[in-house]
Amino acid sequence: MAAVGVSKHFGATTALSDVTMRIAPGETHALVGRNGAGKSTLVSLLTGLHRPDGGEIRFGGEPAPPAADRGAWRRRVACVFQRSTIIPTLTVAENLFLNRQSEGGPIRWGALRRRAGQLLEEYGVGVDPGAPAADLGVEQRQLVEIARALSQGARFIILDEPTARLDAAAIDRLFARLRGLAASGVTMLFISHHLQEVYTVCDTVTVLRDARWILTRPVADIGHDDLVAAMTGEAVGLTDVARRPPRDASVPAALRIDGLALDGAYEPLTLEVKAGEIVGVTGSGSSGKVSLAETVGGLRRASAGTVSVGGATVGAGVPAALRAGIGLVPQDRHREGLVPLLSVGENATMPIADRLGPAGMILPGRRRAAAQAAIERYDIRTEGPDAPVASLSGGNAQKVVLARATAREPKVLVLINPTAGVDVRSKESLLGAVRAAADAGTGVLMVSDELDDLRHCDRVLVMFHGRVTTELQAGWSDTEVVAAVEGVSA
Ligand SMILES: Nc1ncnc2c1ncn2[C@@H]1O[C@H](COP(=O)(O)OP(=O)(O)OP(=O)(O)O)[C@@H](O)[C@H]1O
Questions:
Q1: Ligand 1 centroid distance, CA of 218 (Å)
Q2: InterPro entries from the xrefs (predicted)?
Q3: What is the pTM of this model?
Q4: Which CATH class is domain 2-86+136-232?
Q5: What is the interface pTM, i.e. ipTM, of the complex?
Q6: Homologous superfamily of domain range 253-486
């Protein structure tokens, strides 16, 4: 597979400029770069979703198929996207044979299900072909996507941040599977913001920066700091996390959770987050951590207990949570986070619309200034406040979600995997902004699977099967967290 001198423009934005990347058969090749570097754009060219403005894509020395021949593309390359392409209202079997159910004749449902069963067995995917796809977890959905790609004949698979929503055990299982695929000759392009993963699973790495190719090297020949330097164009390394001074016991609680419970997700839980405190919550996929944060943020209704902010009980629902002073960064920015048709500025300033002009009016100049300040503070790479939010790269969109959650100087900030899809350098500025909010008196509840996020917390609660089983004060070791997440003591 090769991209030779490819360029791509979106309006005035150059997303790729004369990029050449060659991937040898059977190789596992990493593609890394900061948010907005052009990785997803390159994937869209490699999968035939977009055509390059210049240069060409080749497979096995042959020119790429015509754009309209989707079948030919599917036989050459498949992409497991961050956003699943599995259709939840269809069964697993229907998803597997999407676009090719009948091969001409009428659809024979029984035969379809049988073939799906054989296929899942062949690829070692333990999923019922008759189950609705909506019932699948993230891990199972990815496996179904991979099985679908292989069964269509593709021997080149692109994995776009496949670990972003998996817990540690699922990541290990995925990596074991990828090694198996590599051993059987499947070629892979692996995109990740977790450089450790690049070293664990890839042979070769290509770095893009500002739409340009920077380097391609065997991973064994480039150290972590040099890789970060190639991505950022700066020689300076990442900074260590400075310890926060301990909270005074007399500081009032910003957030109090009293006997809060959600049937099937987590058991009654009581917890206080002081003003200025950052409390981390982690755990495996089934620990209940995300449901807990979603209840506090108003996205789910508790089956028992109360949430109070500054001593006042918060009603159910997102509007009540917002009124009470809770800012939320939800898990799925596509579903709950942003309004794609509005501009970056409109999205970032939505919660403060009432402050942007007199009597319900919005003064455009004031909005632009507020939006510009957010763009600078969160290091958002965009043409400007008027660019549609849909034009942002994934990591930059995540920064807009955080800008919005903090726009009203919330009393409480509830963050769910806030740095998902955010590049190594931007993570620093994003977590720095969270700390600045805490220093100004906001109580922060941060649910995360990332040790790098959790390092910024004053203490970390580990949940296991719906209960807090461990509390770790700052200064914990990685093995302590991992052991508690797995439900074994360190
Ligand atoms: N449909 C589009 N319209 C306008 N601009 C776009 C569009 N798609 C991408 N861009 C721009 O092209 C540039 C490259 O974006 P791309 O999504 O390829 O980055 P990325 O490296 O995948 O980033 P991330 O790590 O955040 O996912 C960005 O400046 C982005 O805003």
A1: 26
A2: AAA+_ATPase, ABC_carbohydrate_import_ATPase, ABC_transporter-like_ATP-bd, ABC_transporter-like_CS, P-loop_NTPase
A3: 0.81
A4: alpha beta
A5: 0.96
A6: P-loop containing nucleotide triphosphate hydrolases (3.40.50.300)
